[in-house]
Design a protein that fits this description.
Blueprint (H helix, E strand, L loop, with lengths): L13 E4 L3 E4 L4 E2 L6 H11 L3 H6 L6 E7 L5 H13 L5 E8 L5 H8 L6 H10 L6 E7 L4 E7 L2 H9 L7 E2 L2 E2 L1 E6 L13 H10 E9 L4 H5 L1
Parallel strand pairs: 4-5, 4-10, 5-7, 10-11
Antiparallel strand pairs: 1-2, 2-3, 6-7, 8-9
Helix pairs in contact: 1-3, 4-5, 6-7
Bound molecules: S-adenosylmethionine (SAM).
């Protein structure tokens, strides 16, 4: 596709470290740590948002929405999906909404996710539905519709702005969706000021409710204040 097309996206340009650890050349940062990556994802994003406890308490047919900045290899998504299956009521629905400006190609995604044999079944299902990498909203459904992955491909802030004006009835609360838990995972803020800024924090506030939580790996002061 021509770079002039509004649907064009630059896919992630990667280096590989220690076999299957992807590093984004353009950001000089890795997507996850070898061996600890899955544990770190669970600790930082699932535990700090108290998802196990919250999901065990969901009522039948309740919905829960996660908003993520940076889909990357989908590791956080797969870890959340696995926990959801173990904890949430069979009739409850998870909406995982993730933005990504530089998606991994199918081949790079497959190679990255091969680092996690425990998640192999989930990775296979994600790969089977991984969309053509064009800018816009891609909706993928898993587990008989219990899990919806809303992959918003394009600039993260612009995508979240579009999300705010989306009237999808399943997320709608007072004319816009409410995110129950945020995963802020967009590479180091010092290496990526385009994503970590006041515009993002204002959008997050707008899309959050009184019980919304957020988790991030960074302890940088500007992010804490934002
Ligand atoms: C640390 S990685 C995310 C890891 C991911 N959550 C996972 O589970 O593998 C950060 C991601 O943020 C994406 N990103 C960086 N800047 C962005 C922007 N302005 N808008 C959307 N995504 C962005 C990168 O392309 C990268 O995939």
């Amino acid at each position: 596709m021509s770079e002039k097309s509004p649907y064009y996206l630059q896919t992630a340009r990667l280096n590989w470290q220690q076999d299957n650890v992807p590093e984004a050349k353009d950001f000089g940062d890795i997507y996850f740590l070898l061996q600890q990556g899955l544990e770190e994802s669970r600790y930082v994003f699932l535990q700090h948002n108290q998802l196990q406890q919250r999901w065990q308490q969901l009522e039948p047919f309740e919905h829960f929405s996660i908003g993520e900045t940076g889909f990357g290899t989908g590791l956080n998504f797969l870890a959340a999906w696995q926990l959801w299956q173990k904890t949430a009521d069979q009739t409850a629905q998870l909406h995982f909404i993730s933005v990504e400006k530089h998606p991994l190609t199918y081949t790079d995604l497959e190679r990255s996710l091969s680092a996690w044999p425990e998640l192999a079944d989930y990775a296979k299902q994600l790969l089977a539905q991984y969309p053509t990498l064009t800018a816009g909203h891609h909706l993928l459904k898993f587990d008989h519709g219990r899990i919806s992955l809303h992959l918003l491909l394009g600039d993260g802030i612009e995508s979240i702005e579009q999300l705010r004006s989306n009237d999808h009835p399943q997320w709608q609360t007072q004319n816009h969706p409410t995110i129950d838990a945020w995963f802020l995972d967009g590479f180091s803020p010092s290496k990526n000021p385009d994503l970590w800024n006041d515009r993002l924090y204002a959008l997050m506030a707008d899309l959050s409710g009184p019980t919304t939580t957020l988790a991030t790996f960074t302890a940088v002061g500007s992010v804490r204040r934002g």
